[in-house]
Specification:
It is built from 22 helices and two strands. With 482 residues, the protein is mainly α. It has a two-stranded antiparallel ribbon with strand order 1-2.
């Protein structure tokens, strides 16, 4: 199907962004020696991409509403390409930081637009799989980043890290070519009044013309109800006068993005070599070898999540993954506290890191992007998702830029115990505030997020949302139906 091809090309954008993340965890070992940077500069270098991606993520909502989802993807790829080139040729720390800032803006654009575009072009029954593919390619990119670290590590240290960072420019150029065959989002086209173009796109991405017409009818029905009106009222509706469903959507989207990063996954990925050094592994070849194992586990489990997301639902995988992270992070805390004094602590650290990233890849990793991009109505989707991703970027930057400092203050083991507690709190939040959305069209999300008092009863056991037991024709029933 053409939507699958479009998603693959789109996700290459996220692959090249996260390839840079996987590479940086190893490249920084050589940058530290080559450019003689301090631990504080190392934290700033690593965390700056996440902080600067806030600029791109917040700007992406308005940009994608103005110029379209497709051209926003081009903008993201071009920005990241420039950043990769700057980093690859950086003669100094300041120059390297400049490249990191530019790349971060491109990352911010892509993190928001990738899941939104994929959700808007995908049919309801396969939306979870297609929208979770960004996390698959994120992990493929991280794994290849670890492999390239291992492969380039034998080169001189003033050359190897430049190749590690600069090579990300290649997939960026491929994406710029691939975007030429990607269709525009049909929902964005309807929002702009270009109905025939939307119909043509739906004919291309649907299994039959009947399915295309049915999907178009749903979008047009939402348009008639005012769901595609965009403009300055968006921010007022989101923050000043939100309806009950919109308020619940905003809480859910911000909450899941907050816990995705506050649970410490980025710290584990970025500082994996530091974690294993604390456990007793000292040689760089050993460190790169273990990180490859971690990357393989992340990639394998996120693929499992993508394959079962539309069958099992969002809630079971999210809750199971979060509880698993809480347990494995506690194990990592124990291993880090004991350190290299006993042999089993090294084994426990390796197993706990692999378990942590695997649980993340089953739950929070893919489902955060799926959930954030599918719950908002079209008129609020781009900018609502941008706000949620903005929170994601702020928390990610705060965690990655403070990790080394926090570990010095409360020890590495203590830091992982904190992350374990946050993951447990996240599981409670998801159970209480996130209803199931599998199998529902984007136009049905307001029903899913109706307040229970207005007739929606959430089946927590099965993760299904059903319309409450209201009498047909009653005043309350008519209110829910409306």
């Amino acid at each position: 199907m053409i939507e699958f091809l479009a998603a693959i090309i789109l996700l290459e954008n996220l692959f090249l962004n996260q390839h840079n993340i996987g590479v940086m965890s190893g490249a920084v070992l050589y940058i530290r020696d080559d450019l003689k940077i301090s631990s504080t500069q190392e934290e700033i270098l690593i965390g700056s991409l996440n902080v600067c991606s806030l600029i791109g993520s917040l700007a992406s909502g308005k940009t994608s509403d103005m110029i379209g989802r497709r051209f926003t993807i081009i903008l993201a790829a071009t920005t990241f390409l420039l950043g990769a080139v700057l980093m690859g040729f950086a003669p100094s720390f300041a120059f390297l930081m400049a490249g990191r800032v530019v790349a971060g803006i491109g990352v911010g654009y892509s993190l928001m637009i990738a899941p939104v575009y994929t959700a808007e072009i995908s049919p309801a029954m396969s939306r979870g799989f297609l929208t979770s593919l960004p996390e698959v390619f994120i992990n493929v990119g991280i794994l290849l980043g670890y492999v390239s670290n291992y492969g380039f590590s034998s080169l001189p240290q003033n050359i190897n890290w430049r190749i590690m960072l600069g090579i990300a420019a290649v997939p960026a150029m491929l994406l710029a070519l691939g975007v030429l065959i990607m269709p525009e989002s049909p929902r964005w086209l309807v929002m702009k009044g270009r109905i025939e173009q939307a119909r043509n796109v739906l004919n291309r991405v649907s299994d039959s013309k009947a399915e295309a017409e049915e999907r178009l009818a749903e979008i047009l029905e939402a348009a008639e109800a005012g769901d595609v009106v965009s403009g300055g009222h968006v921010w007022k509706e989101l923050f000043l006068r939100p309806s009950r469903p919109v308020r619940r959507m905003l809480v859910a989207a911000i909450g899941i993005n907050f816990f995705m990063q506050a649970s410490g996954n980025d710290a584990v990925v970025y500082y994996c070599p530091e974690v294993f050094k604390a456990a007793g592994l000292k040689k760089k070849k050993q460190l790169f070898g273990v990180t490859i194992l971690m990357g393989f586990m992340k990639t394998a489990f996120v693929l499992v999540s993508a394959l079962f997301l539309d069958k099992a639902g969002r809630r079971p995988l999210l809750l199971g993954g979060s509880i698993g992270m809480a347990i494995s992070l506690a194990g990592l805390g124990v291993g880090a506290l004991v350190g290299s004094r006993v042999a089993w602590a090294v084994v426990l650290c390796v197993i706990s890191v692999c378990a942590t990233v695997s649980c993340f890849s089953v739950g929070l990793g893919p489902i955060t992007w799926v959930y954030s991009s599918e719950i908002f109505p079209l008129r609020l989707r781009a900018q609502g998702t941008a706000v949620a991703v903005g929170v994601n970027r702020v928390v990610s930057g705060a965690v990655s830029m403070s990790f080394l400092s926090v570990t010095k203050a409360i020890s590495m083991g203590g830091t992982f115990f904190v992350f374990s507690g946050i993951s447990a709190l996240g599981a409670i939040f998801f159970y209480v505030f996130l209803p199931e959305t599998k199998g529902r069209t984007l136009e049905e999300m307001c029903e899913v997020f109706e307040d229970k008092k207005r007739g929606v009863e959430e089946d927590r056991g099965r993760g299904e949302v059903q319309i409450g037991k209201l009498g047909v024709g009653s005043a309350e029933g008519e209110d829910v139906a409306g």
